[in-house]
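Before relying on records like the one below, remember that each one covers exactly one chain. Contacts with other chains, cofactors or solvent are not represented anywhere in the record.
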Amino acid sequence: MTSLAKAIIFGLLTFSAISGLAPADDIANAKSLGKAFTLASKNAKPGVVFIRTEILVSDRNAYTTNDPFELFNEEFERRFFNMRRPRRQQVIEGMGSGFIVSSDGYILTNTHVIKGAQTIIVKLINGQEYQATVIGSDEKSDVALLRINATNLPYLNFADSANLEVGEWVLAIGSPFGLSHTVTSGIVSATGRKSIGILDYEDFIQTDAAINPGNSGGPLINLNGEVVGLNTAIFSKSGGYMGIGFSIPSNAVNKIYRQLKSQGKFTPGYFGAVVRELTQREKYRLPSPIRSGVVITSIPADAPAGRGGLVIGDIITAIDGKDIENTITFNSVTGMSGSGENLEVEFIRQGAKMKRRVLLTPSVSDSDYEIAGTGLKVRVMRPDELTTLSRAGITGVIVTSVSRSSPGEFIGLREGTVILKVNGYSTTTVNKLEELLLPALKRGALELVVFQEGRLQKLLLRHR
């Protein structure tokens, strides 16, 4: 024991000896807080479930032994007799948590808890087990919706996570290491945590309530027993608890839940604006006390942002009451908002504060699209790519593959090339590129402006 530790202990003992027992008011306050924890846990635990999954995998090595000659025989059979030993199906079990959100059996959890599972078993607090069906899941947000064939179930309500404050007491309920319905307490350490590198769109609640493997998919609740977050990840160098856990805010989870329930999938809304972060000079020119936002640098034709009344140069400071601090916040807020949502956008135009509503449409597909007769597969730019490249004025359609000996290869296009213009016309959508490219190829008169090999280039095709 160090001399400092001895001094602290001695001081505490001396203080206790002088002051005697803790004041009655302090004890009463401590008991009151304890009762709040007890009541919140008691009310919430029946709505929390333990999830066990079974994943079938093929394992050919299960038929071999550690005998080196046996291993040689298998390779010999494969090489010289074209024989392959049969694969045996093995079952890998996984575990996690979830919580009931309606009395008729809908359950929320993480996508990573149930991904790849052939069988999903849900166990209630009373020990009853049910086989669950996946209603829908979204990998980008890591939210999944299950359903079991049961009625009159206890369920949890959502709180408004926008009202959550740093320092507020919260409880995490789940099944760490398979220990069902474990409750841990802590505080909200931070809100709006981003750039963690876990999900595509991040806006996490950070908490020091102990979260361990098996807690994933369980609820983070307030002292009213309401869900404020979906426990999703931990920061750990050992695989266990290190005082930092992350939860998806309930407002985002609720949005995704509603779409998963009605459509079986989550369709992110398309906002339709390319933005950049403010410079320091621009920040200090903003009206006090606003000191953050993003600047719109371009709006594709017929995009929701333009239809909502936004223009290039507008400085977006908040969306649906949430401050937009930077491009990461902008991408998270818009990316976690579903198609059909009508967002209130606060912005500054020429020094004046203004508001407009933007109705989000289904997001532009980020999957590959083949343009017939060109040998090209292309896709639109994703939000993170737009944010990065638009600073250099680069917006367009990305080439994802080019077939050998195709017109696309003949022109000089390569995988990763961004096509900005065709014969002087901008290409911000796949449909627009196809509309411009095919007639130009037929005429044999084509001029492309592309971003390739780290620089802007022109590619020409002229028939003689």
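The longest helix spans residues 24-44.
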